[in-house]
Amino acid sequence: MSDQQQLPVYKIALGIEYDGSKYYGWQRQNEVRSVQEKLEKALSQVANEPITVFCAGRTDAGVHGTGQVVHFETTAQRKDAAWTLGVNANLPGDIAVRWVKAVPDDFHARFSATARRYRYIIYNHRLRPAVLSKGVTHFYEPLDAERMHRAAQCLLGENDFTSFRAVQCQSRTPWRNVMHINVTRHGPYVVVDIKANAFVHHMVRNIVGSLMEVGAHNQPECWIAELLAAKDRTLAAATAKAEGLYLVAVDTLTGMIFQNRQWARYFCGLTRIMLGTFQAVANVVTA
């Protein structure tokens, strides 16, 4: 086929939401369920051709996404509704496309991203939850969120995160730039928000695991700074569980940031509703 006869190629970006509790992580793997495999299958059905997606951040088994960004290329010309409603009709109920946007040829979901934001939700109560058991991490010892927040501020800026890096991490460098990290309490929930240019493997969960030790008064506030300086993973706390972690936003192009913020407001509203509901339950239980 000559150049004149070749079909045009379209580059499309999507915002993806998923409950990761039943998946072996984002990345496609042989003989196990992955979010990528399910999404590519649904997209291929709509495009009527094989589709490969590239994501902004690969999440581990059990980790959720509410602001994941992906892109793919296709020769199929479809309306936006086909890439949202049509793809959603072919996806399992725990994965959904939230928005679609045509992007320029030089856009790449991973390499065009300037920052990612994660949220970790801890249900800090004597009794474990049931309905949200796969969406929050239960920690029964009382946590001092203000103490955790103060201890976490030493992580801001560009640092070597070897102490919070999984042993099997394949990143070429442990250096990352943390732009903000906040720890707040909402009734029985403690929420950790962290934004960085990128993350080493298990970085957020390892940070949260150590912050919980500080919040439970098992370690002093200065311990987090000491861990950071030590550059030794064996000195830090155990990795926090996967179920409380969400990839909530990815900063890329200006338009994409706007889309992410729209979705972030939706997710924050949903979170407030959930926290309010379970705060009411907690009040009834403790009354």
Automatic annotation (TrEMBL):
- Catalytic activities: uridine(38/39/40) in tRNA = pseudouridine(38/39/40) in tRNA
Q: Where is this region: Interaction with tRNA?
A: 168-172
Write out the entry's keywords from A to Z.
Isomerase, Lyase, tRNA processing
What residues bind substrate, as annotated? Y118
Is this entry keyworded tRNA processing? Answer: yes
InterPro entries assigned to the protein according to its UniProt record, in alphabetical order:
PsdUridine_synth_cat_dom_sf, PsdUridine_synth_TruA, PsdUridine_synth_TruA_a/b_dom, PsdUridine_synth_TruA_C, TruA/RsuA/RluB/E/F_N
Q: What is the E.C. number? A: 5.4.99.12
**The keyword DNA-binding belongs to this UniProt entry's keyword annotation:** no
MF terms in GO:
lyase activity; RNA binding; tRNA pseudouridine(38-40) synthase activity
* Active site per the UniProt annotation: D60
Spell out the Pfam families in the cross-references: PseudoU_synth_1
Q: Which NCBIfam families match?
A: hisT_truA
Q: What does this protein do?
A: Formation of pseudouridine at positions 38, 39 and 40 in the anticodon stem and loop of transfer RNAs.
The entry sums up its family as follows:
Belongs to the tRNA pseudouridine synthase TruA family.
Summary of subunit composition and partner proteins: Homodimer.
Protein name (record): tRNA pseudouridine synthase A
* Species name: Escherichia coli
